[in-house]
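This section describes the prediction task in plain terms. A model, or a person checking by hand, is given the sequence of a single protein chain and must write out its three-dimensional structure as a string of tokens. No templates, partner chains or ligands are provided. The sample shown here is typical of the held-out split.
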Amino acid sequence: VIANIYFVGSKGQANYLITTPKGNILLNSGLEANVPMIKDSIQKLGFKYSDTKMLLISHAHFDHNAGAAQIIKDTGASYAVMDTDVGVVESGGKSDFNYGDKGGENLYPEVKVGRVLHDGDTVSLGGVVLTAHKTAGHTKGCTTWTMKVQDGGKGLDVVFVGSPNVN
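The expected answer:
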């Protein structure tokens, strides 16, 4: 996409790989069924899926988070989630205020969160720093991520929007 940020998702799924000298950050794990596609996309770009050291999400709905358990199992990545989405992630979507009682595709494998984030917290790896901004509405812990990159000698601000929809 720009600098060290690569799109590794599908037509309808926003998954981004952020590369660093100390390993890589994956933003959004997507659907369970998309994990092999994400892995393949990473490898086609010339990176190692096993170098995924950190997993972040924009919010705790199945389409952005259902693949988390598999990715963590495959790579051993650490997992950081905004405070008010932690319960949803750890319940596999069952405690989601809007979709938890609907079952079906809204549910996903439960996964333990390694680090609980709060508005304004940063995560860093290999000189890359992302800031978590709580933008609740779509979920209680919806997170918009920001970072700075250098591309072609120019400093740029990057924003990964959590989700503009309010549930």
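For orientation: The first strand starts at residue 5 and ends at 7.
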